[in-house]
Every structure is written in C-alpha cells, then in structure tokens.
Amino acid sequence: MKKLIDNADDVTLEQLKGFGLAHDTVEVHFDPNFICLAGGVEGRVAVISGGGSGHEPLHGGYVGMGMLDAACPGQVFTSPTPDQMYEAGKAVNGGKGILQIVKNYTGDVLNFQMAADLLRAEGIEVRNIIIDDDVALQDSLYTAGRRGLGTTVIAEKVCGAASREGYDLDRLAALCRKVNIHGKSMGMALTSCMTPQNGTPSFELGEDEMEIGIGIHGEPGIERMPIKSATEVTSMLARRILEDGAYTRTLSEWDSEKEDWVDVEIQDITFQQGDEVIAIVNSMGGTPISELYTVYAALAEQAEQHGVKIVRRLIGHYITSLEMAGVSITLVKADEEILHFYDAPVNTPALRWGA
Amino acid sequence: MKKLIDNADDVTLEQLKGFGLAHDTVEVHFDPNFICLAGGVEGRVAVISGGGSGHEPLHGGYVGMGMLDAACPGQVFTSPTPDQMYEAGKAVNGGKGILQIVKNYTGDVLNFQMAADLLRAEGIEVRNIIIDDDVALQDSLYTAGRRGLGTTVIAEKVCGAASREGYDLDRLAALCRKVNIHGKSMGMALTSCMTPQNGTPSFELGEDEMEIGIGIHGEPGIERMPIKSATEVTSMLARRILEDGAYTRTLSEWDSEKEDWVDVEIQDITFQQGDEVIAIVNSMGGTPISELYTVYAALAEQAEQHGVKIVRRLIGHYITSLEMAGVSITLVKADEEILHFYDAPVNTPALRWGA
Amino acid sequence: MIRRWIEEMASVLAENRACLSELDSPIGDADHGNNMERGFRAVLATLPETEDIGALLKGVAMTLISRVGGAAGPLYGTFFLEAGKPLAGKTELTPEDVVQLFENGVTGIRKRGRSDTGMKTMLDALVPAADALRSTLAEGGDLAAALKAATDAAEAGMKGTIPMLAQRGRASYLGERSVGHQDPGATSSYLIVRALGDAVEGISR
Amino acid sequence: MIRRWIEEMASVLAENRACLSELDSPIGDADHGNNMERGFRAVLATLPETEDIGALLKGVAMTLISRVGGAAGPLYGTFFLEAGKPLAGKTELTPEDVVQLFENGVTGIRKRGRSDTGMKTMLDALVPAADALRSTLAEGGDLAAALKAATDAAEAGMKGTIPMLAQRGRASYLGERSVGHQDPGATSSYLIVRALGDAVEGISR
Ligand SMILES: Nc1ncnc2c1ncn2[C@@H]1O[C@H](COP(=O)(O)OP(=O)(O)O)[C@@H](O)[C@H]1O
Ligand SMILES: Nc1ncnc2c1ncn2[C@@H]1O[C@H](COP(=O)(O)OP(=O)(O)O)[C@@H](O)[C@H]1O
Ligand SMILES: [Mg+2]
Ligand SMILES: [Mg+2]
Ligand SMILES: [Mg+2]
Ligand SMILES: [Mg+2]
C-alpha cells in the first residue's frame, strides 16, 4: 500500500499527534480525539465541526482564529462518535452555546445529534446545522438526501467570523443555514482511493474512465463515463450546479420549545443572472494544483455565460478524499453578510488571511 | 491519461490562463510566458525565479507582495528559455537590479545565464544565485552537482521580504547565497509521475517499492528499496540531512569587475546542536496532506535527537512533481536575519500571512 | 446467555470483518466490517463484571456509540440501549423478554434512523427476525426454535435486500445503482441474530 | 545545402521524438525528443528567407535558444551560434568551412556546458565527428567521404556513451546507475551529423 503511514489500524492517531506538534495555535486532545483552539472561547458562540478523517485539511486544518473552535476527527471515512463532540463542546463552551456544522451523512447526522443531546443534558444550548450541497443527488424524498461537500468550508469560515463579531446562537444558526441553501457543489474522480484499513481501492475505474457525482468517501458516483477534457468535465459540473433547481428537503433540527428534534422543510436558492459567488475549485487529493487552473478557467467561462460573477475563489486542497485524483466545484451565492464574514481575518493551519 | 487537462501539448498555456483569471494580484504575460506582480517594482531590487512547470505552486504561486516579483514557467519539467527571463526582467526592473534565484539543473543554470547576459546588455545589473540543496547527491566534482529543492521556497520568501526592506543587489545576493548554504533537502517517491506530453510514467516502481533521493522531474532517485513506515522513511531522510557534511562545490557566478562568469567555491554549513531551523514537509503532489503529519512527527523527533529546534514549519504542497506520491524534507538553519524576513508579511496565491 | 451472546457477536463480527467491508464497498464506503469489529473488540474489553442484563446491554450500547462511529454506531447503539432498558436488574431472560428485547431495539433504530423495512437497511433483517421470534413462540415453539426461525427470517431478509433500491444511508446516493447488492448492515444484523441462536444452543448443549 | 540540412534535421528529429524522449527516461526527465522536435519545428517556421549561411545558422540558434529550454536548448543554441559566426555573409561552403563550423560549435558547447568528451554528453558524438571530418579531408577525402566518416564516428561515439558514467546534466545525478544507458543528447547529435551527410548526398544525387 503506497502510503506514508506507520500503523494502518490507527493512522488518525499518528496524524493527529503530528498535527499537534506542528501547529501551536491549536490543542490536540486524545481519547476522545478532538482539536480545539488554544486559549479557549469566552463570551461567544463556539463553532464546532467534524467528520470522518481522510478529508484533510477539513476539519482540523480550519481550527483557529476566525473559523472553527473545535474539530472532531473520526476514523478514516467514519463519522466521529458523540463522546468526541461532547468533550470538545465542554472544552470550548464559552457560555453562549454551540453551533455544530454537520455534513449530511447518516453517520455524521446521528452522531452529532447524540452529542447535542448529551451537551444539552449539561445545560449547554446546541444547534446542529446540516450542510447538504451536493447537486449530483437530485432526489431527496427517497434517499438520505444530498451529501455535504465544499459549502462546508465556506460555512465554517463565515460562521467562525460571525461568532467573533458577536452573533448569538440563533442568528449564527440562521446564517449557517443561509450559507447552506446558497451553496451547491459537485465532484468527479479520475481514480479511486484506498483507506489504510482496507488497502484496496474502494471502486475500480478503467484507464479511460472517470466517475461523475462522487462524494468524499470513495463511494462510487452517479455515473461512469469515458474521460473528457478538463473543460468538458468542468462544463458538466458547473452547468449542473448553475442550473440546479430550488431543491427542497426535510432536515432534522432541534426545536427548543418542543424540546425535541423536528423536521424542518428547507429550500435552496437558484442562481440568477447578476449573482455574485464565492467559488471553490478543489482537488480531491491526488490531482495536482496546476490542473485546477484549467478547471478554473472553464468554470469562469461557464459562470460568465450564466451571468454569474465569481468574486472570491479558493483553488487547492480544501475537502479531499485521501489520494483520489479528481476535482469538485462549489459555488456559494454571496450576499453582503456572507462576503463580509468571508473577508474577515482568519488564521488557521489551512486557511489564512488578514492575520 | 488520468489528468484534468485540455491539450497535452501545451498544458502550461491553459494553466497559465486560468492562473491569470484566478489571481488579480498578479499579471500573466504570454509569448514569452511570465507571471509578474501587478503594479510593478519601483526603487528596489526585483526578485525573479522560474523553472520547468509541473512543480506548482513553485514558482508562479509565490509571485506577490513580499516574495517573487516575477516567475518564468517553462514547459513541463523543462527549464524556461532566456527570452522569458529577459522580458520578465524588463517588465519588473525597478532600476536597482535583478536577483535571479536559480535551481541547480543544467538547463536552468544555462538559460538563466543567457538571460542575465541579455539583460546586462540592456544595462540592467543581474545576479544569479544557485540553489543546490539536495543532500541525496554527495559528490560534486564529477557531477552537475546537487539539485535545487525546497530551500528555493525559503530563499524566495526571505529575499522577497529583504528586497522590500531595501537590501541592495549585492546584499540580497549574499543573503540568498546564505539561505542556500543554510538549507538542505531530500526527497522520496512512492510512485512515479507522468508528463502530459509523454503519457507514460517516467520510471516504474513495483507495488512494494519506493525510490529514495529523487528530484522533482520524475527522474529516478539514488536508491530503490522496499516501502518502509513513514517514521522509518523520515528518519532516513532527516538523518541524511542533519548529518550532512560541509558540502563544497564550485558554482558559476557573475563577476562584475571581470565582467565574466567566474567559478566561486561555496561551502555549506553543517547542523549543530542548538541550531534553530525552518522545516518544510512537502508533498510531491499525490501524497495527501494528512500523511505529511506522521512525517512531521518523526522529523520533529529526529531534530530533537540532534539537538536542533524547529522554529517554523510549512506542511503541504510547496514544490511538487506533478501527481507523484512521496515527500521531501527541507531544513534551513535560521539565524536572526533569515527569521526576520521569513516572518515578514507575504501575500501570494500559495503563501500568505500577516497580510 | 447475554454474555455468551456478546462474545459470540464479537467473534462472528471479527471473522466477517473483511466480508462486511467488502459488501460496503460497491454501495458504501467499505468500512462496515472495520467499524463493527472495532466496536465489538472494545465491547469485550470494557464489558462490566455484572450479571445484570440491563447493565450489560447498556454497556454494549455505550461502547458501540463511542467506538463505532458512522451510521452503524448510533443505530446499533440505540438498538442495545433500547433493548436493555426494560431489562435493568434482571439476571435471567424469559423467552418473552427476548422478544421484547428485539422489538424495543428495532423501534429505537426506526426512530433514530427515520427508517423502516424496504429501505435496504439493517431493519430488513432485524424486523423479520423479531416478527419470527414472536410468532414462533406464540405458536408454542421454544426459545431455541424461535431463534432458529428468527435466524432464518433474518437471513431471508438480508438476501431480500439484494434487489432493493436503497433509501437510507450512503447506498441511497447510488439510486438505481444500489440494486443488486446485499446491504452490509442487514448482513451484520443477520450475524447478530444468528449469534444469539448459537449462544443459546451452546448453553443448552 | 545548409537549408537542406536544417530541413533534414527537423524531419529526422521529429521522426525520433519518441525514441529520444525514451532514451531520456531512464537517466533523465524523458523530454529530450519533445524538446528537440518542438525546437526544430519552430526553426522551420521561422527560418529567414536568405542564402546567407551565417544568418541562417544564427536564426537556428536564436530559435533553439528561445524554444527548446532545458539543457539542450542553450547548448545546441550555442553550437549553431558559434558555428555560424565565421560564416556571416557566405552563401557557399568549402569543406574547410564545414570543419570550422563543427569545431567552433563544439568549442561553444564545451565552454557553455563546462564539459568535455567522456562525460556522457552530446560532445561524445560531436567531437569525434569533428575530428573525423578534419582528418578525412586532410587525408584527401572529399566532403561526402568526410561526412560519411563523421557520421560513423558520431555513431560510434553515441554508442560509446552506453558504458559511461555521466558527469554532466541530469544523468549525473544517477551516479553508477547512469551506466548502461545511451545518452539522449549524444543520440540527437549523431542524428544531426547524419542529417548533414544526407543533405549533402541529396544535393549531389
Ligand atoms: N437511516 C438508517 N436506518 C437504518 N439503518 C441504516 C440507516 N442508514 C444506514 N443504515 C445501515 O447502516 C449500514 C452502514 O453502516 P456503516 O458502513 O458502518 O456506516 P457508514 O455508512 O456511515 O459508513 C447500512 O448498510 C445500513 O444497513
Ligand atoms: N553540461 C553539458 N554539456 C554538454 N551536454 C550536456 C550538458 N548537460 C546536459 N547535456 C546534454 O543534454 C542532454 C539532455 O537534454 P534535454 O533532455 O533536452 O535537457 P534536460 O536535461 O534539461 O531535460 C543530455 O543527454 C546531454 O547530452
Ligand atoms: Mg463510514
Ligand atoms: Mg528537461
Ligand atoms: Mg460504511
Ligand atoms: Mg531531459
């Protein structure tokens, strides 16, 4: 297995140790594992996220000033367990409640719900906001719904900044929900990837094939087809994103009056002529940075054709799937509020500006 | 060929176009191709680098405030041609001369020399400083000498900052030379890579093999061996770097009195107990960020055993070789001057802090 | 019996680790066997020294919840948590207790997972197993016979997931492409039911 | 003759593009054929409309310098630049001019590359070729015979690089592992020498 690891059975542990040694702006805790801001959170809402490992820099790389207060890494491609979020929540709780940003995978949703229940039992207010932005999945009625992809990064950035500027828990939850319904993503793979535990590719792709509409866990996508040029691939993804309808789904959110999880119906925006967007052109891991630029050029072209203007962009490794070769594209419609918090200073291992 | 490209015969062009669209802090010029700081350079030394493409973000990603003033990308793995550096030099010349930072590959050395000759004919003073930090190569007498690896990134950062603080050309050249003799690197590969033009791997590695002492052009390394654990691999590379002797070589530098290229003998430092260093743990391209952290942990351990203290570190994609899986390690002994300029604000597409 | 069941589950899930992860590969993320094996290894290591069946099942639940992660962790965790609730303080199980155990567990999964049979999940093995338990006992069968019937029903339910279109969990992302594959969670559920039959048989032998 | 030579070089280097890059793979970065083909394609496209041999060779040199990159670009560029210098204004070549052309070119490479024969480079084909040219003419042979001898010497020199340990260029990084491989630059040099022979023969036929 061509990986730089020591112990296939617990790579997460060894990588977390290195992460802790490398970055002195964060603290790494073990058993249960979580990464949190060194120095703690006082008098503002704490923002927490997490998910399976293997998507680095997500989420640990985004812990720091102006973004996440804590991140809970699960085993590779396996959502974290409630005790991790419970301990992380207690560690960073600043008395104003906790926003949990959760990617829409059954495991993540359930484990973060259980964690919220545990924290609430300690008297800490918690809101879970789900990110489900993967337009590859059209249907929501008969499925677990859309997966969480790149919009997560923007949600973490924007909410981290808004917490610093004093948003209370409900307002922050509303902002996070807004980023989610403003954001749409889609990905594709040229190669599969391999978890250290399994040591075999999670799916097989022929030498001339690519997989469209993949997630970030080595799952197969929605369609397999012959490899096309970067511009054709990008057009396919970008058009699907730009022309996506007003997707509607039911998500579980905590109702503090009913004191129970209730179903909330939520509807996406659709992109309109004149919209300004934040774009992410994201390597799935194995695709080198250079190749992302042909994709960016084609994306800019598609956006222009749709009358949509890219006003900010991230091009690089942001939400990956181990060593998978491929790319995902995210567009988030940016209003003044979102742009203001996006531009605010941030200092994390993986995202830094203005500081 | 599993690449996100449009045209295998000139990927550099399409990628440069995307780069120009994406980053409005830089200007991209075509035919001849170069990337330069938007706004120009006034009243200070211009710092230029360049080399074959395929090493992104090196060098284009480092053009910006506080680092490079211009970068000249050649074809993939092929050094740029003198007309590129000539035009870039004329574009960014601010009247105080030009420092060219050149990685020690025959092609780069020769083409940058020719460019210096051309610029000098226009009345512009030029110094070429060679980076040759690859400790995999022991001998210098009977070879083209050591290759240029990760120390290049630190040299570009430090010299870019020093130019902003008013260093004149000779002082800047001396600083660059110092960074070079303070820096040592070594790399390894788990897989080969493939240029778009060739479409076949540049060397074949068995499923259980790795290659030690590789460069950044898909050349084979100095030794092939069975894959080892990340910690063992790191120890091997780190010990070789930390225990490297006072390497001596002869490099061609311009003598402004003799008005000719002269051979200068230059000697590396050796690392000593108590040294402070800047470390780079660099993905060769295909190795995901997560794996770099086990390497970092092992590197920190080795450094400590040698009494050397890592005071700054970069962990990620800095000087790559297309999609090659593998890692390279760089240590640069940091004195007060180097650390001061390393810490200075920088705002480039690939490296940003304090701004 | 419960301790014996737990040991039997741990051993059969360890044996089937690779196979369960492989089933999770075409329609999931290829980790179900790893998750279950890791979870039950921890269960064995942390099992409390008590004969209180409710406490034992709660112990299993808490360990699964904190060690498995993914979808299966909270779902099986909820199964054992709910299953154990009415059994707190008991040291012996009547056959009716076993029926209750399964029915409570299944109800827990239904609620937590917003799911039901026919969606290509663990419920497609567990629900028929619970039904078979109840009806065999109602028809006068003994516990061994009921567990035999439950195991057969779970196996049939597990195989019945093959032609299904997934509507929950990761497999549902695949739409039509999820058809033709056996659900890994239904498979581990079948093993869990069978393990109880084997444990009871082992005791009576 | 020079124009014919240039066309012959362009065509033979294009034909051997893949083979030259392949030779550059075990001991280099697998681009030598691509570099040479790209360079000479540009040479053809930009060749000035003149019969001035000096100007033609300078044109070749400038195009190679600005289009090839790598080590071969400046080295072959220097070769043609130096080769053309004494021929400015000439439209006919004497056999002695041809000797001079090669000897000047080789001297240019030696200086620019800080290299010499025995280092496993293009010089190992070019230097014997230049020597054979001079000595065949001195012994009374005509240009065609001299070029035939030069081609044979270049081929022998090229093959002679196989057992050599590289001391210049990328191949030198490999140390002992560079032994056993034919140098791509020596191979393109052989093709360049042969191309002149073929051009001259083509004219006299
Ligand atoms: N909502 C749900 N209700 C019931 N069972 C579910 C649900 N979602 C997923 N499952 C079960 O979980 C199994 C997958 O478990 P596992 O692979 O461990 O988790 P993950 O999908 O997070 O990797 C599926 O095969 C399915 O049987
Ligand atoms: N210092 C030198 N002197 C003479 N020839 C050299 C020198 N360095 C390299 N060469 C020649 O250049 C050839 C490689 O050319 P090419 O592959 O185009 O450039 P690069 O090595 O930059 O990729 C080698 O095979 C060798 O013959
Ligand atoms: Mg999983
Ligand atoms: Mg080259
Ligand atoms: Mg799974
Ligand atoms: Mg080459």
TrEMBL record, chains A, B:
One of its GO terms (molecular function) is phosphoenolpyruvate-glycerone phosphotransferase activity. One of its GO terms (biological process) is glycerol catabolic process. The keyword Transferase applies. It comes from Kushneria phosphatilytica. It holds the Pfam family Dak1. GO terms for cellular component: cytosol. Its EC number is 2.7.1.121. Keywords: Kinase, Transferase. Residues 7-353 form the DhaK domain. NCBIfam families: dhaK1. This is Dihydroxyacetone kinase subunit DhaK. InterPro entries: DhaK_1 (IPR012736), DhaK_dom (IPR004006), Dihydroxyacetone_Kinase (IPR050861).
Automatic annotation (TrEMBL), chains C, D:
GO terms for cellular component: cytosol. One of its GO terms (biological process) is glycerol catabolic process. PROSITE patterns: DHAL. Keywords: Kinase, Transferase. Coiled coil: none annotated. GO terms for molecular function: glycerone kinase activity. It comes from the Bacteria. This is Dihydroxyacetone kinase subunit L. It comes from Kushneria phosphatilytica. The lineage of its organism: Bacteria, Pseudomonadati, Pseudomonadota, Gammaproteobacteria, Oceanospirillales.
